[in-house]
Amino acid sequence: MMMKLATKISLALIVVVPMLFVFTIGFSSNENKSNQNSILYSKDFQALYFSLTSQKIDANEIQKSISLLQHSFEKDFANALLLKRKQKFEEAFNLLEKYLTELPDDYRYYDELVLLAQIINKSDYIKKKLQNTNENNYKKYLNALLAYHNGNYSDAIELLKEINDIEPLFLLSHSYRAIGDYQKALLIIDSLMNNYPKDQPEYCRFIISKGSLFLLSGKNEEANKLYKAGYDIAVENENQKEEAKALINLAILDDYKGNVESAQEKLRLALQLANDIEDIELKAIAFSETGVSYTYSGEIVEARKNYETSLELFRKLKNSERLANLLANIGSLYIQTANFSAAIKSFEEGLKYSGENTVSQILNLRGLGDVYSNLSDYSKALEYYNRAKELSEKIKNVNQKALSEISIGTLFYNLNKPNKALSVFRKVEDEIADDDDPYLFEDLLFKKALALTDLDSFAMAEQQFKNALSIAESVSDVYYKSLILTYLADNYIRQKKFRDAEVILNKVMKTSADNNFTQLLALQNLYLGISNFHQKNFSTTRNYLLKADKTAFSVNDFNTSIESKYYQALCLESENSIYDAEKKYIEAIEMIEKSSNSSALINSQIDVSRFAGLKDSYLKLTDLYLRQSRFADAFDMIEKFRARNTFRNLNELKLQSIINDEDLLRNYYDIKWKINSGIYYSAELDSLENVFSSIKNDLINKYNFNPDYRAENFSVSSDLNRIPENETLVSYFFSEDNLFAFIIKKNSFTPVLLHKKKNEIVNLVKQISPVYDNQINLNDAYYNQDLFSFNSRASNELYKTLLEPVREFLSSNGKIIFSLPVELSVVPIEFLITNFDSYDSPYYYDNKRFLIEDYSISYTPSVSVYLIQKEKPLVENDNLLLVGDPQITSSDFAQSYRGSLIEDESFSNRNLRIFPLKYSKEEVEQIESMLSDVSVLLSEKATEEQFIKNSSDKTLIHLSTHSFIHNNQPFIIFSQEEKSNSDGYLEAGEIVKLKLNSELVVLSSCKSGLGTIDATEGIIGMQKSFFEAGAKSVVVSLWDVNDKYTSYFMKSYYKYLSEGYDKSEALRKAKIFFKKNYSANPYYWAAFVLSGDNSAIKFNKSLSFAIKYFAILFTILLLFFLTKRFYLVNNR
Fold first, then answer.
1. Which parts of the chain are coiled coil (predicted)?
2. 27: nearest Cα among 158, 138, 171
3. CATH class assigned to 20-279
4. Is the overall model pTM greater than 0.85, yes or no?
5. In whole angstroms, what is the distance from residue 186 CA to residue 912 CA?
6. In CATH, which of 3.40.50.1460, 3.40.50.280, 3.30.310.10, 3.30.470.10 is domain 870-1105?
């Protein structure tokens, strides 16, 4: 819902743009030009030219005056201008075109000719006609005009920068402005103002143009002074064209200040002047800006009428620049009325027309971001917002940058990250402290209030709401006033001020209904329903929620519809209508799934964050099933939400790994999203279906791949036969009151109630080691074997709670695959003690028996993920990649061994200070000696670039490097390379792009198994990223281990792997070997865990062994042959 908020403020900045280019190519006089050979026009023509381009005329009198002109060129030029006023564009063009090959030495001629050619589609014709003519400044100017009108501003600049005449310089200034280089544009305008005669009636165009540059730079007061000065000069010189332009720009500033009535009066006068002088382009601009002004006063119908009129005129003129900005305005209006399909079409068309015009691109990109955010496709929204932000930073446009950043902050809010959102809003507030735009501040204060409300800072939020409301009332912003009041009511509901909330909502609903604010109306009904729910007025609650659901659905507001269904279910459950409650939960879940599945290309972090705010329906329905002892249904529901993003991405992995045509892939996702979005109907939907069918045929024909195939979530009723023999999956789940264990074997499903609450299990875990104290951030803290302080008594207690009750269901000496809730996600179950003597020391380990001694143990995010990994086919190859001993110069070292603390501040420029991994090289060389077909990247060759280049075709990848966690985001460090496009830090977002074909990735580095903890996804870190990059299984570490002992452990692990043991059994044997031969302390061996497929890997023996045995055999045979030969010779 909230991204609708971006609409109004987008309009506020869009207002600026159409007029900033109003004066791009004024049809101005050439008299008194310096360094310019111009036609010596008669005084009569000069007067006529000014009248025909800038004043109201009597057509009959003008026609008489034209007939008196002596020179045929003057006569035809004047007649062409008169025909243009009458919109007889082709006749006007024909009069001018016949002089083209003569290259008349008057820049105004080319202004008119190119504009007319643009309108009647003759641009290519005139360009072709001049191909064989000699180059001169006039030909360059004509080609620059053609480039400019087509949005190719860079080409225009190249053609113009060597010409020092006034008109080319004026066009050059506008070309620089179009690409966002306001400084160069301003320098040129200042130069023109210094050289052009100030007593000429057209001098004011330079003043107004300079005002627009100040406006674009956020200097509104300076712009206002210049516009007023330009207006006064225009009136004094009876230059009605420039007078109208100045009025439009002053109206823009009035709208900015909230003086809407004054703005609309100025626009009315400007439109009258445009009609008087019969200037179609000026009329189009006036209609467009009037439309914008009406949006400020909340008169949406009037706004749309003016936009439509303007659009019709601009299409007639074929003016790409104006069309780009107008379409951005129209798109924003469509968002406000929840017509999202029309909004997308408008912004996409506007983006095409933008060409190289940076501001136009920003407006349309941000508009697309707003649409996708409204439709909950936050991945796509962030993509557009970031592109808009990058462009605004490039052109140093403070207002546009602020708007892009506010959009990104709003996205964080929608993704349940209010802290992050608030920090963005506060940063923007500091950056725009000197700005006087009320709409910008109104929006910013409102969004700060939303973030503060979600952080339970209700009093501070309430004050921010009231500050924003004060601004909205001062500028008569009806939409924002309604919006702010709606969310203020939500603030009151959270404070249990139900009466205050309901008074506000009942009052503001009428305004929403009167102004067709349908999305707001849905939200207001929702909040009234929630308020009544908390007061246990269930009948009233249901009435409001049904209205909210129906209204939200009508405008594709999925989030409001989902929340209304969720509260309906809660209400029904409270009334003990269990069957109906179940139906409502399922409806909410189906809508969540549909809105998620319709998303375009997936951004994992965004998808996970969005789902964090929508998971309650899944959890509540699961609890409902468990209370009814419907254990199979409960487990199926757990599988729907546990690791759902990982499962979804793995489903898409085959498509993304097979298709190497990025445009085709993006088109596939975009069209799929449009079809599933629910915002297109009838003919448009049929057209999209046809396009999508064609794309799917391309995928089948070119890549032999059917994109319709998707693996489904695991279901107890249909998928138990997919579980391999001798394997047991154990999945734990915390309900509201208890802990459940689900035992899944081939054709067998057993639920076990463990009668333990979540807090009891969490407290047991904390007693095992200080590592699990929630006051300490595991990502940041470092523990040696003493500080790890493993408590075997507590470990045994956890064993008795988690494993002992289910042990009878486990196959002896079989494989166990654990799927754990987030509270156990960093606990290696293999270190649980299966026996403990009460007289024994908890810190003596040699006589203890660990669970790993009885079972091969591995992990999976969910049963669905396990099966998709297990069954995923790979391209067979025997290639292996070993990477280790990354080199970082000694001047950067600040740590003595793997995994020491990193100061947070040291990450400000990503400058890590670490010591080398002393045993990493030895570790890699020992593994290499056991295997064949090995590629090795050691020391200075162990760079990020080389790793990415060599990783895609490797069946096994071993990384013995540094890895670190910063702000819960893990990354791997490689050798630094001076001349490289890579920075030496491989992050999660880069990993998922690798397109691996790997049976196993081993991350022999500290804390490689950690990352962000999500309630349903578990750990979001490198393990998840390597899965989604194409690895079937990953070995990671859960805490720091000295690299000497890591080296010993890995040597043992690869020994067992190379002997043919499967991945989990090899890991089990390596742990038992380490326990017996080095140390029984789990600190050293329990950190490394396997996730994913646990099958064996087929290795070739090391070439060094093969060559050695072949050499010995060859020597024996050779000796035998020589001995026999010697014997035969001697016995002849």
1. none
2. 171
3. mainly alpha
4. no
5. 43
6. 3.40.50.1460
